[in-house]
Amino acid sequence: MIRAYKFLMRPTARQAVALGEMLRDYCSLYNGALQERRDAYRHPSKTSIRYGMQSAQLKEIRAFDPERQGRWSFSSQQATLRRLDKAFAAFFRRIRAGRTPGYPRFRGVNWFDTVEFPKDGDGVRWDSTPHDRVTRVRFQGVGHVKVNQHRPVAGKVKTVSVKREGRKWFVVLTAEHDRPEPLEATGSMVGIDLGIANFLADSGGRFVPSPRHGRRAAAGLQAAQLALSRFPRCKAKNRTANHQRAVEKVAALHGKVRRQRLDHAHKTALDLVRAHDGIAHEDLKIRNMSKAPAPKPDPERAGAFLPNGATAKAGLNRSINDAGWGVFLAILNAKAESAGREVMAVDPRNTSRRCPECGHTAKENRPTQETFHCVACGHTAHADTVGALNILRAGLVRRNANQA
User: Fold this and answer.
1) Using CA atoms, how far apart are residues 159 and 173, in angstroms rounded to an integer?
2) What whole-number distance in Å separates Cα of residue 395 and Cα of residue 282?
3) What are 37-55's pLDDT values in tens digits?
4) Which residues, 6+ apart, have CB-to-CB distance to 258 below 8 Å?
5) Are residues 205 and 150 in the same domain?
6) How far apart are CA 98 and CA 75, in angstroms?
7) Each residue's pLDDT tens digit, 270-287
8) First-to-last CA distance in the chain?
9) For residue 326, what are the domain limits?
10) What pTM does this model have?
11) Residue 124 CA to its chain's centroid (Å)
């Protein structure tokens, strides 16, 4: 199985400059390849440019510009062109699906923060043997950079990436190793209902409160973004010191919220995986749930629109995004695979409207957000617990059907 590791790097001042130049030059390569594809499409002949054609030009590009392109790894430059090719493949896939996707866009220097090296030993070398108790990674054109390796890397390193987050630099490794020994069986199955008031409710009646990291940081973020808005928009090289500090403060606050969400998701998922052999959850379409409502044109007035509840929906969308369901489910699936547990996604329809006692399904069974009261048999419980019970039963049905 493949596992990812992310470590903080501690480059010297000169190495930090070189890493910044690396991102700048790879960004230039990405934008140049994108411009070539645009020009080819706008040409009367409607020529299609593919990855293979652009990759074949790399040798000439490196010879023409040895200072900016020739000093970096050839294979990592190919990986950057593949990155662009994937963007176009996703663009055309959405078109075929009937969606309205945005065309791949040019990247600013501050929006191009990752460079991938597809093979350890080709342009990059991960040194797993510490020298003077210090782990290092060597990048072509940069040198040996110190790494704060806080845990051992298991297995063989396959790919290495360098990532910039604010003023910090990270190295991201993917390593392939044998599947670890599964955890001991507990004989327990659980259904979980994800929500906003409570982050999670399980079929045993337990609740995990919603941390609401985004809401707690909203006041500080609003003040920082207001301070940033007072500066005119300009390129990074033209920013004053105060402007740069305002940008970094906003980025630091967003980064803190992101790390808090990840920490909460990891801890919650780990508790579930350790305690249960199987975990059932709703197959949520989170992107559809957080869409803005469609506008309602006023038939009596041209150019006017009727109220569509966009303000209330915007608040709900912020709460959904703040909960981080998608991140949590991705972490839960990864931890379950590593521990030999089973995760099942079930149909979410009527899970909070169906009575777990008599099976009666009706909208009236849920008079409020938290209350479930069956109009047929009178069963009363917390609505999220009822949803988790129905999710568990659907998961057991699916599991038994797969085993059969």
Assistant:
1) 6
2) 9
3) 999 888 887 778 899 999 9
4) none
5) no
6) 35
7) 999 999 999 999 998 888
8) 27
9) 189-403
10) 0.85
11) 25
